[in-house]
Amino acid sequence: MNEPQPEQKTPPEPSARPLPPEGEKSAGNQGPAGPGGPLPQRQVAPPRIPWFLIALFGIAILWLIYMGEDQSGRRVKYGFFWKQLEAGNIESLKISGLQIVGKWKKIPELPAPEGDKPARKLEDIFQTQIPQFESDRLLAELTRQGVDFEDTTTQLSLMTQLLIWMGGLMLVMVVFFVIMRRSSDPMGSGGMFGSFAKSPAREFRPSDKKTTFDDVAGMEQPKLELQEVVEFLKQPAKFQRLGAQIPKGVLLMGSPGNGKTLLARATAGEAEVPFYSINGSEFIQMFVGVGASRVRDLFRTAKENAPCIVFIDEIDAVGRMRGAGFGGGHDEREQTLNQILSEMDGFAQNEAVIVIAATNRPDVLDKALTRPGRFDRHIVVDLPTRDGRLGILKVHCRHVPLSDDVDLGKIAASTIGFSGADLKNLVNEAALHATRTAKNKVDKEDFEAAADRVIMGIKREDILSDKEKKMTAYHEAGHALIAWMLPELDPVHKVTIVPRGRALGVTQLRPDEERHSIGEQRLHQQLAMLLGGRAAEKLVFNEYTANASDDLKRATDLARRMVSHWGMSETIGPAAFRHAEEDPFLGKEMHEMRAYSDATAHQVDQEIQRVLFAASDKATSLLEEHREKLDALSLALTENEILDSDEIEKILGQRQVRV
User: Fold this and answer.
1) Closest to 386 (Cα-Cα) out of 407, 411, 421, 413
2) Which of 89, 128, 190, 556 has its CA 20 to 30 A from that of 336?
3) Do the domain assignments include residue 197?
4) Would you please indicate which residues are annotated as catalytic (active-site) residues?
5) DSSP letters along 27-87, please?
């Protein structure tokens, strides 16, 4: 499947949850006193072994001692015993169930085993086991031989049953006693259920390796907003003097990988206060009430260690709008949310506990959670600008030896749409590529290879047939030619027919400037570029292939948004007709009612088709007009497999500059 590169490509997101820094100490480590006074010391009690485990261990030892009486010099096979019984060599017997303990008249000799091993010597006392359904025959033979025997099966059986019954009853009583004792204070810090209901928040002390605003690059505006929080935690009297109140909660909103968690950690590091971090999903468990108990424990600990910061990552996991989805109105998640609301309302005026939460779905949060008085301040953590990306690259390249040909400014300019996590991954992939090629420094070639891997995917070793290679070359040449001829589109950076990821070829466009708004003319040209590969296949081979499936999906989605979302249709006019495109678990409602008629829906579909057909006709006319350049570009792709912008310019000529 051939996929042209989108204008702003965001690579797959790495885990939004960063690893703790090196040297991170456990929650029990003591740091210096914070602004709110000395931090309480936590003493770890030595592990205690329950007494009933010692009793069970003793019973097991006694049982092994009892079974150990079955020594190798006494145990014989039942067949050997039967032969000795028939020979009259049994003096006396004691029968207990299926076990026999007896005495020989004359100690017999066992048959010699195979090999050179000597036969085992027997004692005057022997043991054996009666096979099933052999008891009657044995009793008859013992009577016939006149052997003195004693059957204790009945007495021992009753005693065994009594011991088993009493032992089981005692075990149940012990387990019940232990559970009742440990669950007597479920909200406490000890005990089985107490530790289960305890908050699993990770604690970072000021003495730990700190993260400060110097470690956070590319987020100048969010840092400026949070600077007031830092100053309040350091000098609360400065604000209270004029009656100002610091926000109880700060909500960080932004796409995954933009650095929301890092920003919260840096805020605590700047203020030099304890920092408690927990993920929203860690509150919810299978037992009812555990989530609310963990919330109470978390906020109680925070108040005891004030001033401090409580950070709840992915708060949408627990703060989703109540009554939404399929869960009903009284599930565990809603109880946990209610407890969070109650705790945030319970802060006193002089309690310096700041709650910072992060989410990438602010639209699904409950209104009671985001209202003033709880999360007063909403801060958008957006994708970094060019200067921001340059700062992020410098931070991540601190410990990476770079070659002289590496220009971080050019890399920052060419990575529009990358988040902070994407840039970190880019630097790491470049370092890995340099390691694989046995280099001493990371050079420009390593960053190019890393960018291709991050944006286009891992190179596949598929071997295309000559026909498939030719069709793929024309498909990508169609994309590249139209993107080169239409001035509103981003410049073509690279075209390849080397299979990467799920695509057989890729046309990569690289934005040359930051863009926050897209005009209608540019969108129509983008549709033509998306359909250019399909149009080239039809023009050259007189048939369509399945390679354009992803192109069609993206073009249809873009055309639908132009018509039904952005009002870019003269027929439909300035109106928005949104469709329920989101999964019900990700949105506010289980389903979305259509607020327009079937006739309007039909009209919208017809207008989408008209826009797509117009884009396809434009692509076809451009390819027919420049057929010679299309053939030349396809031939060069077939021979070289990869073409950069300079090589494309030699074939197609200088690109028309956008006015």
Assistant:
1) 413
2) 190
3) yes
4) 476
5) TT-----BTTBPPPP-PPPPP---HHHHHHHHHHHHHHHHHHTS-TTTB--HHHHHHHHHT
Q: Per-residue pLDDT for 345 more than 60?
A: yes
Contact 497, 462 (CB under 8 A): no
Cα distances (Å, whole numbers) of residue 49 to 46, 54, 218, 589 = 10, 8, 53, 52
Structural domain harbouring 433? 386-454
C-alpha dist (Å) from residue 303 to 36, 215, 299, 513: 10, 28, 6, 48
Q: Are residues 214 and 352 in the same domain?
A: yes
| Tally of structural domains, the chain | 4
Q: Would residue 109 be called left, alpha or beta, if left means φ above 0 and alpha means ψ between -120 and 50 degrees? A: beta
> Residue 440 carries which DSSP code?
S
Q: Do 219 and 346 belong to one domain?
A: yes
Q: What is the pTM of this model?
A: 0.64
In a domain, 21, yes or no: no
Task: Please state, in angstroms and as integers, the Cα–Cα distance from residue 279 to each residue in 20, 104, 227, 314, following that order.
Answer: 14, 74, 24, 6
Joined together, the tokens standing for residue 520 give 């209608």
For residue 109, list its beta bridge partners: none
* Dihedral angle, C-alpha 592, 598, 603, 605, nearest 10 °: 50
Nearest to 414 by CA among 443, 432, 390, 439: 390
Instruction: Report d(CA 201, CA 296) in Å as an integer.
Output: 12
Residue 494 β-bridge partners: 508, 644
**Pairing outcome for strands 505-509 and 2-4:** parallel
> What is d(CA 407, CA 418) in angstroms, rounded to the nearest whole number?
17
Q: Does 20 score more than 80 pLDDT?
A: no
Question: In this predicted model, what pLDDT tens digit does every residue of 105-150 receive, in sequence order?
Answer: 888 888 877 766 777 788 888 888 888 777 778 888 888 888 888 8
Q: In terms of DSSP bridges, do strands 353-359 and 505-509 run parallel, antiparallel, or are they unpaired?
A: unpaired
Co-location of 593 and 473 in the same domain: yes
Asked whether residue 285 falls in the same domain as residue 233, the answer is yes
HSE-CB at 70 with a 13 A cutoff on CA atoms is 12
DSSP states along 161-212:
HHHHHHHHHHHHHHHHHHHHHHTSSTTSSSSHHHHHHS---EEE-TTS----
Which ranges of 531-626 does DSSP label H, i.e. alpha helix?
A: 532-541, 549-564, 598-625
Torsion of CA 261, 263, 268, 269, to 10 degrees: 110
Average pLDDT, integer, range 425-440: 93
Residue 196 CA, chain-centre distance (Å), reads 22
CB neighbourhood size of 394 (10 A): 12
